[in-house]
Amino acid sequence: IIAIGFCTKSAKLNKLPGCGENSWGYHSDDGNFFDCSELEEPYGPTFKTSDTIGCCLNFRNNTVLYTKNGVNLGIAFQDLKDLKGNLYPCIGIRSKVRMSIKANFGHKKFKYAEKWIKALEQCDNKDKDMIEDFIKSLEIKQNDEVALRYHAKAYFIMGKYKEVLANSTKLLEIDQNNAFALRYRGETYLILGKYEESSTDLKKLLEIDKNDKWALKASSEINRR
Question: Which positions does the entry assign to TPR repeats (predicted)?
Fold first, then answer.
């Protein structure tokens, strides 16, 4: 079993992440999320040593989500603001055979981080005036595609999923084959656990480009649930 998560300084290190007080973890054998106890909560697909698992703590909206090979698996935990003390990344392994994994705690570039970095840069404080300008333009011209695209991406990173759905849906009303909007709306539905809606957008995305790697991966993850 591989368990990937986070913990406080007081967590017991002789237990897998999530199975003891002050620790939380996503487990490989059953895909469940453990929240400070031996009781699991259904979460995502199983994973193995050949997979790349990411754990993202979003302190802007106080949620935690995981990714598997670059595919967002959705929100696993929603109460970060209630946790006291510093949080630390942690990994646990329980195996009867020799096993090895590679961990990246931020000392090198993350494998699937490029799109997040670009979007976060666009949401930086230095772009505050630009964001306000786009908001004003939306108030004046509701079908401003450039502004709608910018907002959808910015809201996605900030975890404002209701706004992402609203903006991407407006884009699709303008152009039903807008791959950008289908991608962001499909991924947002996936995060929110609305798998049927996500699958519909992914199928449309694959009709536009049957070789879309992200859509193929996301569809595969949905089919495994």
Answer: 179-212
